[in-house]
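[Q] Does anyone have a clean structure-token version of this?
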Amino acid sequence: MSANYIHEQQTQYESGGAGASPYPVHVYKHRATEFRVVVCQVPGPLCHMAVCVPTVCADHKGKPHTLEHMVFCGSERFPYLGYIDAAASHNLGQPMNASTYADMTIYKFAGLGQEGVVNVLPVVLDHVMHPLIQDNHFATEVYHIDQDGRQQGVILSEMSDFAYKESSVRWHSLRQLLYSPASTYAWESGGLPQSIEALTTDDVAEYHREFYNYSNLTLLLVGSYDAFPKPIFDVLDGLDVEIVASPPRLRRPMPPPRTKREKRRNDVAYASEKVHIGTMAFAWEGPPVEDVETYTALEMLIDFMSTDPASPLRRRFTNRPVPIAGDIQFDITDYFPSMIELSFTEVPLTSYMSHAAEAAVAATTRYRDASISASYPSPADAFGPIDLAKLHDDVSKLFASNYYRKQLASTLTYIVDHWLQENWSQFHSYLNKRTAALAASFSQYAMLDRGMFSLLRMLARDAVAYRLSPGSVDLPEPNFASRGRLFSVRNELLQKDCAYWKSLVQKWFIDSQAVHLAMIPDPKLGIQIEAERNLNQRSRIESMTPAALEKARLRAAEALELTKARIPPEILAALPPVPDISKVQSPAFCGHNIQLDSAAAMGSPFGIGRVLVVPNDIDAQFQISIPLGGLAEDLRPYLPLFTKLLKASSGLLIPCTIADVIRQTTSLPIVKPAGMPFAYLSSDQVDAALGKVHLSYDVCIGKYADRNSTGAWPHEVLTLYGSVKSSELLQGFTLVMLKLLFGDFGEDSILKAAVEHEKRLSRHRGTGASLLIDTFPWLRIPGPLDARTIASSRVSADSYSKHSTCEPVGRAVNLYFQLAFLSSVKKSLSMALNGDGLAATEASHVCTAITQIRTCLANCTDHSGLVHISLPQIADDSVARKIVDSIVDAWISCSHAWCDSMQLMAMPNSPYPSTVEYRVVNGTTTPPRKRRRTGTDGAPVLKSPFFALTSRPGSSNYVKLDSPLGIHMALANLQTSYLGVQIPISTPLSQTVDLTVPFETRLKSLPERDRFALQLLAHVLNRTGGLIKNAIRGRGYAYGVGVHTFYEEGYLAVYISHAVDPLKALAAFWEIIDMLQSEDKWNENVDEFQLNAARSIYLLRVYSDIVESLAPEDASAIFSGFTGLEQRLLWVRKHVEAITPADLRRAFNQYYVPFIKKSSTSALYIVATPLSVEEPGVDFVARLNDNPHGIKFKTMEMSALDPVVHI
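[A] Here you go.
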């Protein structure tokens, strides 16, 4: 124990599971100051370290955010840009990161083992306490004006986009309405663009002097630390003289929220092309964070109201035939005091015919929804009488004064007066289920560095409360682990009666005064902002004297040179050696592999079984992957819709032949009707059974639940996930399987799922990263309209390409195709439900397609699927075999019953292909918006091969280009630019796994050397301080820079986001690729130190993924041809350790140089800019084309990429 510190507190966090060990927390206080070290012991390989500083604001200049960036630019002891990240990367850790919140700033490091933290800690503290706040660093990281009058800077790039997003404008406006100007929460800690322009280095230096001293700092250590980590305190003892000199701690209790409201509602405009929908938002003052019971109760209540489809808010506003909101966002934030926000997004703004048509459908008896209580207000009650003759509705009322507030008030009153009492068991059951789910997954949340249940964040909030919260600033010591009894408090709240929850709603939502905000879309606002930006730039140029222009040029040049500066080799050589990774504590697990080669199993889709035993887990998990290789190609577009149906509420139609077995396995209340082939269970009965057994369940296309995106080319498997109690594993799987095969997916259910899925995709289209992630695959995968078509098209802009085609799976699930496809599905089903005979035929095609997907799955005997089970208790080989066999037997029984039931139904035997129309792009000419419905021409069917467990899709699936192609799109909803380049990986990066060759023999030859070299090279170029990131972000051209190797999808990509100067960002990227072709420049910039840093970052991410999702990572190893995660970890480590700088050089020449080749390359560029990016008299595309690499850009409207799909 150090003589400089006292052991002030010892407490703990509950780990969630019954009998599971808690996470001990030790608090050490400096003997003479308020500086504290908090150690939270969590077993595993990861060690998190964070420095927490309370930071408050009184303006919109973004001083805390600016200072956060400046800390990374060097310190008095280590005056080198990027040194802090070099030290972090050299110690089995990721580059340092930081987050600025409304009332605190956290500097974070995560690494493998305690040794790396010890090495990094003195570097971090010197940067935090003694940063170099210099003008040149300020110019690149924050703000400057170049010689052309353009505003640049990393923070300016980041906040220029953030400040105008609907969610950001809404959140900032609500805080300003709720909190007084004396509170930090009324101000934007990140800074607003207009205020950032007025910020100076002196402002930043003064802010540092005010808030950054050791009495305000708290050092947080979370992970596999000793209770008293002596090496950490040895470092701190060496700084004791400085720590002792710290002034008293900050005491600044935040004032209470405003008590007077100037208006009952405030209207705020935001930039959006979606002029038919807006947002209604409300905010209330919440309880003090010290009142843990009330705060936790509100968390539970808000979670139910916003998440459960049966909640009164969902039924009243979103889950109804004619929604009056698209989604609900309901949150409580632990400010001082806390803030409760309730936002209704996608609220219909004006009356329009499509909504009226839906209202008419809802009024008919054909639209049935048994889940809507008869006692609850009907759609007609909410909207008023509907005149079916005129198809008139009163949706425009929603934005009338006080209309929405009254709807919310009546719903909240209804909850207190009727709903909670009448639905108490349903509400209580949900709270029980969510508490169990949180307990099961708490270990995953606990080791994240952000999020509501992150240990690091919860400890940081306790540290800040001691300085800012009115309820804590006068305490003799901070109350760390204030939420340590998280699960005990939840269980105590579960014992509360209905009256308690009624009083909660009454007090905090009905009796408390809310602020009300209406968000109104303005399609011209984005154009206006960009036009003003260009006008200001022109005015600056005209007003600047020659001397001022020269000064701006010199400042920009000096800042540019600063980003090229390298840390001296002798300084890097003085860093401690890289810690030994073999000493890192690995997660505890073991696996049992079962070859499914019995006669019975050979009739199933499964070939491999794997049972993983994870002693530290609480629940059991299953991941069942069924091959899709035999699926008819015209059914592929229905796959995403099918997955959404499996997750939606629905009844079951179970064949009577298996009813008795199902009743015994699942306890479902099945009653076989006399003389009928099927027994029916309502959606309420099914949901109750699922909720009782499942902590969570999911379904996706591909092998990863988190890869269920339209941007990926998925493996051709359908994967079912579930988390259940070990004793209910078979029951949990059977329930999901029954839904897959026997769910009652009628026209109304499919329509609901299509509407919801279309809404989710529409939110992402043309926004942020979706511009690149979704557009690249859409243009790369062969199809009637792809990159090759755009590059070679010479057809009139009035022409259309007309095809009857089956899209390959990569295009069929892509956002562009799915939006058009879902629109057609929605139109056909809604018209059919309204009695349209022609549409009824199309609707039957949709239902038939869903049925045929089921038939394909039930008949699949490909014998290459995967049954993956994760258990918390010990299991030997015989037990593992029984578990896997029970899953396989259940599948065989139910799939045979499905096939037999098909003989009882009159179903068409052949699929129905869709007709797809594409626009043909003519050079830089923008096609007209008018679309024609015409006949179709035949096109060859595009086959997409089945990807076996050991194979991966490669670049052969992508179209090739004879020369680089660039596409420019101007979008009104953007405030900054997004650009990227993608190139297919021309040769396979991994060999086809020959399982007949022993693993050790395969490993000796290091067959995936090129793949790992390419991945490590991406880290070398893209890590903080890496060449590409430094050349673009370091110079202030853009905020986000990413180099990504998607080896499974078969391409290499560079994405640049939030760019305020896309031309210079692109030129900087080309400059680096061009420079590194020189042998001398390569050797100067890429050496063994850079390689070691990349190794550390890569291995940390591998281990982090395992900690966060061990079971899915183990299943992924099976997909990759390994026997399990044990083999994969060894495979990765041996390859990573063997990579040399020469391997990186070879990878660069083979895969990066083609980005700028003038010919024989398939590089595809996309540049998306704000609509008015062109300066007066300047052709932006001409400037793009004026490049030394022969890359030709064409301008397109995003709508030109949209197909028209006819069912």
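[Q] Thanks! Anything notable?
[A] The mean pLDDT is 83.
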